[in-house]
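To illustrate the input format used throughout this study, we show a single complete record. The first block contains the structure-token representation of the backbone; no residue identities are included at this stage. The design step must infer an amino acid for every position from geometry alone.
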């Protein structure tokens, strides 16, 4: 593998995360798994672990699958930096009395690149780079308030003729308190290992231990969501263990229209350029449901001076 290919591989791994070349931490393989797959979740800065009745919530906490009231399907598309395209698909439905099942797909396409030798001279050939994750999840509940779930994931990453694969699982718990409309969650995501490596170097998966909290604020149309992620990662100071937190607020104007705001603390700190932050780490979005069947979501995420990302999702609710 040429030096240029190695540099491109490193470059792509950095840019699939919101932490764009500014963090000193070691970057594990398959960082694209951390990228928010849906517009609704992204507009809330990824504070989505306690969301109910949404098939995309399984990407954050598989226990949310057992909150699906009707069969739902969702497909999304997004534009990332440097013309990187990505998409996601999810489907969730209850199957008889066995429980709830879900299917999730996440895909990244980094485009086409010119191939060069060790001296940087073009060979006249091109190559592609892409990432793929396919997951199958199961969920059920205990005493109706406590939901549990597990997701099994196959992960693929390819650059030119080189590829790497992995298997991983997500575990999740969700405790819902109906009266005060409170949600509490705990999850372990991306627990697994590589099946095959790019060359001979085995890399870790982006293991993520997460806790979440949500509350529908009394006498207001606001649902507040907070997620603390990466609690397993080592930090120099104790207080830094809660550095990776996200806050999302959904303003529910009606059953069919809502607006969203989000704040990702870690992204804001990592995206700092000199003394300038701008609105890095902030996100916003809109959700509209047409005829109680078709769901449209849009999200805009700011990466400060680096740029911004856009996501759109279309969903459909089945009759049951």
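Output of the design step:
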């Amino acid at each position: 593998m040429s030096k240029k290919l190695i540099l491109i591989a490193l470059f792509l791994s950095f840019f699939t995360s919101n932490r764009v070349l500014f963090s000193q931490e070691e970057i594990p393989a398959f960082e694209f798994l951390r990228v928010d797959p849906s517009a609704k979740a992204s507009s809330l800065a990824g504070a989505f672990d306690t969301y109910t009745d949404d098939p995309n919530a399984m990407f954050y906490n598989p226990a949310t699958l057992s909150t699906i009231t009707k069969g739902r399907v969702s497909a999304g598309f997004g534009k990332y930096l440097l013309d990187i395209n990505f998409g996601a698909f999810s489907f969730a439905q209850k199957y008889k009395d066995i429980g709830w099942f879900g299917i999730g797909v996440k895909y990244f396409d980094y485009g086409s690149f010119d191939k060069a030798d060790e001296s940087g001279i073009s060979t006249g050939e091109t190559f592609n780079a892409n990432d793929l994750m396919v997951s199958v999840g199961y969920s059920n509940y205990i005493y109706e308030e406590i939901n549990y779930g597990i997701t099994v994931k196959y992960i693929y990453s390819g650059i030119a003729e080189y590829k790497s694969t992995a298997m991983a699982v997500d575990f999740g718990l969700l405790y819902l308190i109906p009266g005060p409309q409170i949600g509490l969650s705990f999850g372990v995501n991306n627990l697994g290992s590589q099946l095959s490596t790019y060359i001979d170097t085995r890399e870790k998966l982006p293991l993520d231990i997460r806790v979440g909290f949500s509350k529908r604020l009394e006498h207001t149309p606001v649902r507040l969501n907070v997620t603390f992620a990466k609690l397993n990662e080592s930090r120099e100071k104790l207080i830094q263990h809660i550095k990776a937190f996200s806050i999302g607020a959904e303003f529910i104007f009606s059953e069919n229209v809502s607006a969203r705001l989000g704040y990702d603390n870690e992204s804001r700190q990592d995206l700092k350029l000199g003394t300038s932050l701008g609105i890095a780490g902030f996100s916003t979005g809109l959700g509209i449901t047409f005829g109680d069947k078709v769901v449209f979501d849009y999200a805009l995420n700011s990466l400060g001076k680096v740029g911004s990302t856009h996501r759109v999702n279309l969903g459909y609710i089945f009759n049951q």
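Structural context for interpreting the output: The CA atoms of residues 117 and 139 lie 49 Å apart. The first strand starts at residue 72 and ends at 79.
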